[in-house]
Amino acid sequence: MREPRPSFCALFKNLRYPQQFLLRGAVIVAIPLALCLLFAWAWGALTPGRLSPDKLVNALEKTGGEHPGYRRNHAKGVCVAGYFDSNGSASALSKATVFLPGNTPVIGRLAIAGGNPNAPDGAVPVRSMALQFITRDGQEWRTGMNALPFFSVATPQGFYDQQMAGIPDPKTGKPDPAKMKAFISAHPEAKPFFAWVKSYVPTSSWASDSYNSLNTFLFTNKAGDVRGVRWSMQAQTPGVPVTAEDKANPLFLQQDIRQRLQQGPLKWDLIISVAEKGDATNDATKAWPDSHQKLNAGTLVLTSAQDQADGGCRDINYDPLILPDGISGSDDPLLSARSAAYSSSFNRRTHEEAQANKGAGL
Description:
This protein folds into 2 domains: 31 residues; 317 residues, Catalase HpII,  Chain A, domain 1 (Beta Barrel). Helices cover 32% and strands 22% of the residues. It is built from 9 helices and 10 strands. It is globular and about 60 Å long. The termini are far apart. The N terminus is likely disordered.
């Protein structure tokens, strides 16, 4: 007669150490489950009301429109390349090898703010410069700078609220004035920024704009001394106010930069501003006084430009927290939010590009 098959519980009884078996099994199951829950929490799946990177990027899409395959902000731009010629003077502040005397290759991007890659170049006054430095020891420094004296808000929530208030009204194609008024009332720190926007006259070229880090970072030297810093790429090219003719040409910035680079390199001085006691290191809405210690660390030299569709900058995520040894992030909450949102945007657009290529049979 055939013996009955032992049950699962009976097998457990035959094990010498059933408790250990159960414990190990529980640990094996718990680890991936915990990781899944951690990622779900980080991206807001478990806390819908929390400001997650996806939620922030969704707000940018609502403001600039959905444009698959493009960056969610500063979508329209041009790739540039060149090098940074360090004079060695910043080595006293930071042990980063990018500040040793000599040249470091640079791949960059010049752009205008906003999520619409088809917007006219004169649509917004805000322009940006993003750079990737590859140092001689294989480290990277990525930085995204804006042609602004200070930022509009001090927190990620403030930036989200600004984007939501700026969503165009379908009837007018422009933000609802009442919503913008409510935003400024809730975020009075934004008043100086909007006053600046109202009075600011842009230049006629990316080449004559100066670009600021806005956020504070930390430099550490070989002795271990840590100093708060901000930096600025200050143009050597004289500025000329934008003209009516410029504004009538939707590609005037891109055409101008190409023409200038055909005639020769374009240069910016990297100016490091050092924090003093009492400076706000966690508030990008506060500009530091011009009386601060400033150091000229060297010269950025751009030598060429390429279309962003196939240029060297296309696949670079200019995450501001990708930093070399000797440079680190500060307590500014915008830095981690920018880093996370850049990652979310990068993942979306690269997935969209892959899907488009798959659909085209490429």
